[in-house]
Amino acid sequence: MNNSVNNDQEHNQDDSDSDVEEVEPRLKYVRMRNDLDSILQNDAASCIAVHPKFLCLGSHWGMIHILDHQGNRIRSKTLQAHTVAVNQISIDQNGDFIGSCSDDGKVVIYGLYSKENNHNMSMERLVKSIALDPYYYKNGSGRRFLTGDSKLILYEKTFLSRIKPTVLCEAEGGVRSISWAGQFVAWASDTGVRIYDLYAKCSLGVIQWTRSIDASPEHYRCNLRWSDNRTLLIGWVDTVRICQIRKRSAQEMANRDLSEYAVDPVSAFQVDFYISGIAPLENQLVILGCLKELDETGNSQRPMLHVVEPKYLEYTAICATSLTLRGYKEYSCNDYHLDCLMDENRYFIVSPKDVVVASLYDADDRIEWLLTHGKFELALETVTANGGRDCKKHSLIYVGRVYLDHLLAHRKYDEAGKLCLKVLGRDKNLWEEEVYKFARVHQLRSISSYLPRGDVTLRPEIYEMVLYEYLKTDPDGFLQLVKEWSPKLYNVVAVINGIREHLSTQENGQNVLLEALAILYTHQNRYDESLAIYLKLRHKDVFQLIQKHKLYNSVHDMIEGLMDLDAERAIAFFLEKNRVPSEIVVAKLQKNHRYLHMYLDALDKKDTKDSKGKYHGLLVRLYADFSRDKLLPLLRRSDNYPIEQALEICRQKQFYPEMVYLLGRIGNTSEALALMTQELNDIEGAIEFCQVHDDDELWNNLVNYSLDKPAAITFLLQRIGTYMDPRLILQKIEPRLEIPGLKNALVKMMCDYNLQISVQEGCNKILSNDHFNLHEKLVRSHQKGICTDDDHMCRACHQKIIIREPRNLVMFYCRHSFHEDCLRNINSLENCVICNPQKPVF
């Protein structure tokens, strides 16, 4: 950015205030030079019109200069269009024709490639504005153009190439500016902005000014611009309006006699400066403005280019840049002009002696600004966005290394270490260069976690440098690296020698360094030395060492020691693939019942074929001592323990539920029921116990126990109705005994008893009905003819039974069939002569 063009973001703040953070600009600025310098040395710019192919600059001497976008003349001959300052220039959409107007009363239309439709017209009045039809270059377009003075007049080509003028509107105070897009034209006058539909030849409405017009003419230029064919931007004095043309709905058109289109307001807000130009920028606005206040010397202040985001009745300021244009102290807001190439987001700012081009920051511009202002993280995000394809000058490595140097200079070593992983990638040389930067400030620990250790590795000396720094300053970190890093990264012998030397001179961190030494010994296959260190340290990695290198025979004499070290892990190790026989473990743990309980419990859960139930007798005692909640489930599921011994253990510890189960198992149900009622006071459990064993004596015992306990009688009456005759308990109850809830209990008992009787009667009825239905079905089937089923053959004479014969049929419950005469001959009408089970069915 050229510093002579702009000062950085001011945004109405004092630049000297260091607490105000600079806002990232959206635009960069370049002063247009080349042939333009010589033009403005002798003349002054009065207006500008920009086309994607070129730009036209109108001057105070009535000249129109056609330049490229860098300020070079495209045509050697300058167009002398007017005798006084050019007021406005218009270019058609294709860039073939230029129209201009001036206070000399002339309107000039000039073809760059053809003179066929050129015009040089004298209106004999001041012409302030002009607009060519965007399609002026097309044959059959009518070659239309608009001029504005005291009236808005449309000129179009008619038969015999005559120019026909049509007055569209009388303008109060004159037409001050015109803007044409598609079929719509907007123009400004003293009363406001009118929008006109050229196809329908009607006005769509007037956007009236809501405040009085400033008396000073320099504060009264209306800036009009179409951001598309339907959206109009209006900047007038210090007010911004955005309007949009929409097509009316069918319902609106039916209800009223209205035009096809309507104008709707989108946004309206006021700014604190005078507006010199307005243009769109994506969903934002670019506004060129001048401060209302003069400076301390009474001169005008620098113009500013604002980027704002419009809302409905307000706006959000994005950034504002103060521009140092030549001679700005002598100019007012009407001396500045703004035009743009919307597709390219390029903005041309014109003052009488200067032209500045503003364009969007590209990725490289943004990165440069961010780096300059210390916003390194945003710079990294920008360079990595879109795969880095937007950047031509800056690379991820360049930005990252600048950021790294900044972090190291500010002693942010941990952040710098993380950044290396993101920036340096797989470049071995870059890694080593950056590692030496960390080494110079003794901060290799900050980068150790991020050093490449996969497909790309550094020289062994790099990793040894890091290990040596940890060895001297952080033994715990040293051990962690030894565990994480592959021994292929460094010279193991050199690291072992370094540990030995350090152990001989230092006492701090002895155990940690011994553990690291044990790991390094395993890398050299020196397992005996490694195991000796682990046992000395009583370190849990001894399990991993034994398992990894299959040192199983070495653990038989240190089973209890391994249990002390980590009981759960030791048990899992003993049981895995039966590496240590259970007999050896049980023998070694005989004196330590707690460990023996843990082992046998785990062994029982594993439930291997060799050990299934083998130690249940021992486990009963251990569960009684350490895990009573597991005792009863064991007693119920196992048969591999001495019941009498288990019962004695439970008697000693007064484990009544377990005793009830064992007594019931050996058939001592009376004692079991007595324990449930007298010791456990569990009436519900006693009822369930009686149900399981279904013994009348048990029921009587339960009833006798409950006779002097009113609450128990109530509970019993509520539950016993479906299991025994309620009269047995009612007859035994003391007549004067007060029983709580007796009435409800009796009702419940009778309901249960009646329900039981009803169910039995229903079942009997169903059985009886099924019996006769089946018999009837059988008889009907036989009445159809001879039965071919062997079951319906007379088992006495072995002849087929024909139902229609006069001899009667006899069928028994066993389904054997006979002729009645045959049964009389053998004197056996009561019983089946084959199976002799029951009486005959019929």
From TrEMBL:
Compartment annotation: Endosome membrane; Late endosome membrane; Early endosome membrane; Lysosome membrane
Predominant place of localization: membrane
Signal peptide start-end: none
Region (Disordered): 1-22
Extent of the CHCR repeats: 572-715
GO cellular component terms, semicolon-separated: clathrin-coated vesicle; early endosome membrane; Golgi apparatus; HOPS complex; late endosome membrane; lysosomal membrane
Domain RING-type: 794-836
Membrane topology per record: Peripheral membrane protein
One annotated GO biological process: endosomal vesicle fusion
Keywords: Cytoplasmic vesicle, Endosome, Golgi apparatus, Lysosome, Metal-binding, Protein transport, Transport, WD repeat, Zinc, Zinc-finger
Bilayer-crossing regions: none
Classification via SUPFAM superfamilies: WD40 repeat-like (SSF50978)
An MF annotation (GO) of this entry: zinc ion binding
WD repeats: 79-120
Source domain of life: Eukaryota
Stated role: Plays a role in vesicle-mediated protein trafficking to lysosomal compartments including the endocytic membrane transport pathways.
Entry's family note: Belongs to the VPS41 family.
PANTHER family per the UniProt record, alphabetical: VACUOLAR PROTEIN SORTING VPS41, VACUOLAR PROTEIN SORTING-ASSOCIATED PROTEIN 41 HOMOLOG
Protein name as it appears in the record: Vacuolar protein sorting-associated protein 41 homolog
Lineage: Eukaryota, Metazoa, Ecdysozoa, Arthropoda, Hexapoda
Record gene name: LOC107221401
